[in-house]
Amino acid sequence: MPIPFINRARTIAVAPTPQASAAPRIGLALGSGAAHGWTQIGILQVLEAHGLRPDIIAGSSIGAVVGGCYAAGKLADLEDFARSLTPRRVFSLMDFTFSGAGLLSGGRLKNLLDSQLGALSIPELSLKFGAVATQCKTGQEVWLTSGPLCDAVRASYALPGIFEPVNIGGDWLFDGALANPVPVTLCRALGADLVIAVTMVADNFGRGGVRVASLAASSSLPGEAAMAGNPMVPPLPAEPPRRGFLAARRVSAPSIANTMLDAFNITQDRIARSRLAGDPPDAMIKCRVGKIGLFDFHRADELIALGKAAAEHALDDIKLEIGAALQPEG
Length: 330
Prior knowledge:
Layout: H1 8-13, E1 26-30, H2 39-49, E2 56-60, H3 62-71, H4 75-84, H5 87-92, E3 102-104, H6 107-117, E4 128-135, E5 141-144, H7 149-157, E6 161-163, E7 166-168, E8 171-175, H8 184-189, E9 194-201, H9 224-227, H10 244-248, H11 256-278, E10 283-288, H12 300-325
Parallel strand pairs: 1-2, 1-9, 2-4, 3-6, 9-10
Antiparallel strand pairs: 4-5, 4-8, 7-8
């Protein structure tokens, strides 16, 4: 049977005139950051006030908490809860345990989530939502896009050593920040055409570089003399002389809690930089949180205000990206 002739020139000639693209589906990738995540409440409020309601939200750790509450229509309730926290109340939510896999059982926080999110499942939400978790044994990144919302959120924020891991479908899962701290990839997988990533940066963290340190005042590391004049290697800061009682006193080591937290943050920061370099978002909201600590949950007023300011600052870039996506193709 002969093959029908295709007049390719004619097909090209009658191609339709390019039309404006449909409104892009906006995805919001909410990053991890413990108490710093309260900034995301302010960010979401500003975006919505300017008509930039996301169609898709992917969250990791505290980003899953804020994003899940927003998708469930409970952002105002979460804000009231965050603003009501005091150091005493934060401590009262810590149910210490010495028999599980974490310092805290997480039962009190689970009860709070259950009271707000109830039996909501992810497919019932008003927008597409996904949370990132990490499988305990393999370190595999797990995307939670179905099932009970409360379980997905709890698994995503289960900080290793602090909260007990959560069992979902036979897998023990903990904090998603260990696999994907700012889940741009999940946003795209859920169908986002344009992804806005939200990250939090402390003033004293996230500064890369290399520093050569001497093991003793009279000794040096191999190659240190050769590197002394290298402009890529910053010089060691001079240590002030000690006198009297201070001369014999040794600097105390960091606490166990601070050491664990710093180690987790260094790991998270390096992973986030790598993931964002491999799959960069279309726009970024970078919120500087100053010297507010990762466990300063009682400072929600300051953090929400910082989130609003960061979102306002990024609005022009976001609108520019949306405008570019609406341009006719061709």
